[in-house]
Amino acid sequence: MIRCVLFDLDGTLVHFEYDDFLKEYFKAITKAVAPLVEPLQFAEALVASTEAMIINGDPSRSNSQVFFEDFFQRVTVPEDILVPVFGDFYANEFTKLKDALGVQPHPKASAMLESLFQEGYDVVIATNAVFPVEAILERMRWGGIQGFPYKLITCYETMHFCKPNLKYYEETLEIVRHKPEECLMVGNNMDEDIVAGVLGLKTYLVEDFLLDSGANQHTPDLRSDFNEFVEFVLSDGIRKL
């Protein structure tokens, strides 16, 4: 029986093209640090240190620790000067990306989540843990899905692995205390989300903003657009899995 539903965020619950988001994000954060770090050097360091998080296999270090340890080997600005600039960016500039992307809440997303909570499911925001929590909460506000009593919101401060590493899912399930067979993973990314099926989670591919490199040969248990997924939830389809 399914007791916990895990949701990817970007392109699943919050509707925008992820590549467009990354383009606007890189442009904005590079501009924010430009007085301190040459833009090309910063962009290269940001990409490399994010990759260091994604491939990390050390459970003793959080993703944020991995990122900053790698990042400050690549730039010359001291950590105590640059980290507050990051904080200011996420507090004051990151929110502006919503308008740049034209993001609007999906009219059915909040009601669908409300239904899951009313039915007693644990709900997890299982977004890839490569961002600070404030950036994740901000994107949740873009989608109008903030304020619910989520069991967990994965972020780089608390997680030690990233998607598509299966240890990301193992760690998530350990935190929420559910077995794989008790969980449904819902996402739009074949490589990062549907891979959870390897561990025994049920998987549901939401295809509106599909991401598929072709490298993942795993087949989702179910697939549809987001509107059909909402109908699946509201018709009590999860209990039939």
CATH superfamily caption of the largest domain: HAD superfamily/HAD-like
Approximately what portion of the residues adopt beta-strand conformation?
Answer: 5-15%
Q: Please write the string of helix (H) and strand (E) elements.
A: EHHHHHHEHEHEEEH
The second-level CATH architecture of the largest domain is 3-Layer(aba) Sandwich
Any idea what the radius of gyration is?
18 Å
Shape annotation: globular
Helix content: 40-55%
Gap between N and C termini: 7 Å
Summarize this, please?
With 241 residues, the protein is of the alpha/beta class.
Structural overview:
This protein has 241 residues and is an alpha/beta fold. It has two domains: 4-16 and 104-240, HAD superfamily/HAD-like (Rossmann fold); 19-100. The chain is 42% helix and 10% strand. The protein contains nine helices and six strands. It has a six-stranded parallel sheet, sandwiched between helices. β2, α7 (133-142) and β3 form a beta-alpha-beta unit. The mean pLDDT is 97.
